[in-house]
Amino acid sequence: MLNQMVKHSDEQLDDVFRALGDPTRRAMVQRLSAGRLSVTELARPFTMSLPAASKHVKVLEEAGLVRRTIEGRVHHCQLDPRPLGRAMSWLGEYTTFWNERLSALEAVLSEQEHDRD
């Protein structure tokens, strides 16, 4: 059971990073961080058709980053930050790793500098 949960979690994380791997989708996420927008509003700064913008939104939806609601013919998108939080937690583990490595390197370099003096 735990193995299935880890696999499911890994797949969700893969989907988030895959969705954020595209600069247009990253820009859409950034714009949605200010509030709800329609697909038309999301597409406006890009040179793309509404169907192309909708495909980008679909990838973001599948990753859990965006929730879409439909009011008549207007599709509204809202950011769901929870998957970003899980991605940040995963990246945070590597922040600690690199901080420890850089601190060790700094100590070695300081020691070498002190030995030269």
Unreliable stretches, pLDDT < 50, 5 or more residues? 1-8
Major sheet: size, sense and barrel closure?
3 strands, antiparallel
* Number of DSSP-assigned strands: 3
C-alpha end-to-end distance: 59 Å
CATH T-level topology = Arc Repressor Mutant, subunit A
Rg, Cα atoms, Å: 21 Å
- Our count of helices gives 5
Q: Proportion of β residues?
A: 5-15%
Task: Give the helices and strands as they follow along the chain.
Answer: HHEHHEEH
Summarize the entry for a quick read.
By secondary structure, the protein is mainly α. The protein contains five helices and three strands, in the order ααβααββα. Helix 1 packs antiparallel against helix 4 (50-62) and helix 1 crosses helix 5 (82-116).
Question: How are the SSEs placed, and which strands pair?
Answer:
Elements: H1 2-20, H2 23-32, E1 37-38, H3 39-43, H4 50-62, E2 66-71, E3 74-79, H5 82-116
Helix pairs in contact: 1-4, 1-5, 2-4
